[in-house]
């Protein structure tokens, strides 16, 4: 059987086709290598961002639990000092806000962890938007407190004055809490001893009474109590002259570094979460793009 014969033109065409294919492959090899290298680097960056974002959101989730627990403690614990302000709707509203913020933070932390682990871009975008809203709300609240501090101080003075006027002298939870404040801060009333002049028990008593928790230890003689009402020998009460508002302000001034540090730390953590979520969304998009086959 005779072998097939190829003419010279077919042989030359086949050889030229092989040469062009080899040259094309050789030329495209650097591009393919660069694409593979970029893909590997993108995968590594995506993994690092993923685990950092997961850890961040885990911490965020735990912080939300602490905030919610603190709000519940203020609202439900009758032994806490905040009970002296329990008649104020503003204070109760603040407790509910703390509980809501804590629960919302826990939900955000959960969604952030879920979006990071499963690389869900819509959850990461929602997470970024919520963090941005929270950061803006915190800035607005800080500005409101700074510019309206006189109004807030006046409102607090009204709340405490009502508490002092209704101070029962019957060892109730409200009385114990206010006694704790005056005794430990060594103060009397909110602005001074004159805040007790409207107390119904003192006004209606035939004796000279004053709150025992206000008593200045250095002026006390004999046995004295640290709760309820004590009898004074003279109209000049042996009590502290400074009001509790000044003591609270002094405490805030002393610890202003800690307060500002906590606020700044929270803001930086939120900014870090926003940056990580944006980086991960971008890396997920790049990774999906590099997986699309490219034809030459």
UniProtKB/TrEMBL annotation:
What is the topology of this protein in the membrane according to its UniProt annotation?
Multi-pass membrane protein
Query: For bias kind Basic residues, which ranges apply?
Result: 15-27
| Pfam families linked | Tetraspanin
Gene3D superfamilies, per this entry? Tetraspanin
Return the annotated region ranges for Disordered: 1-31
Question: Which cell locations does it reside in?
Answer: Membrane
Keywords, ordered alphabetically: Membrane, Transmembrane, Transmembrane helix
Q: Which GO terms describe its cellular component?
A: plasma membrane
Transmembrane segments annotated in the record for this chain: 51-76, 96-117, 124-147, 256-281
* Family of this protein: Belongs to the tetraspanin (TM4SF) family.
The protein here is known as: Tetraspanin
Q: Tell me the organism.
A: Perca flavescens
């Amino acid at each position: 059987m005779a072998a097939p014969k190829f003419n010279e033109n077919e042989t030359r065409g086949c050889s030229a086709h092989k040469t062009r294919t080899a040259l094309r492959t050789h030329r495209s090899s650097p591009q393919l290598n660069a694409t593979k290298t970029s893909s590997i680097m993108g995968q590594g960056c995506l993994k690092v961002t993923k685990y950092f974002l997961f850890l961040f959101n885990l911490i965020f989730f735990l912080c939300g639990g602490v905030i919610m627990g603190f709000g519940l403690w203020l609202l439900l614990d009758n032994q806490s000092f905040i009970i002296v302000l329990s008649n104020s709707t503003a204070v109760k509203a603040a407790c509910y806000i703390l509980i809501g913020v804590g629960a919302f933070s826990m939900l955000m932390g959960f969604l952030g962890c879920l979006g990071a682990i499963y690389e869900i871009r819509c959850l990461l975008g929602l997470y970024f938007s919520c963090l941005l809203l929270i950061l803006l709300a915190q800035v607005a609240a800080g500005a409101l407190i700074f510019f309206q501090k006189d109004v807030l101080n006046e409102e607090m003075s009204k709340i405490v004055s009502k508490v002092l006027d209704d101070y029962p002298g019957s060892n109730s939870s409200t009385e114990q809490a206010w006694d704790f404040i005056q005794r430990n801060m060594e103060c009397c009333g909110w602005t001074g001893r004159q805040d007790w002049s409207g107390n119904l028990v003192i006004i209606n008593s035939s004796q000279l009474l004053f709150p025992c928790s206000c008593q200045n230890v250095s002026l006390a003689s004999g046995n004295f109590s640290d709760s309820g009402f004590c009898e004074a020998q003279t109209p000049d009460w042996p009590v502290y002259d400074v009001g509790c508002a000044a003591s609270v302000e002094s405490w805030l001034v002393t610890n202003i570094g800690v307060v500002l540090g906590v606020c700044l730390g929270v803001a930086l953590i939120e900014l870090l979460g926003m940056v990580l979520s944006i980086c991960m969304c971008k890396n997920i998009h790049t990774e999906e793009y590099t997986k699309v086959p490219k034809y030459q």
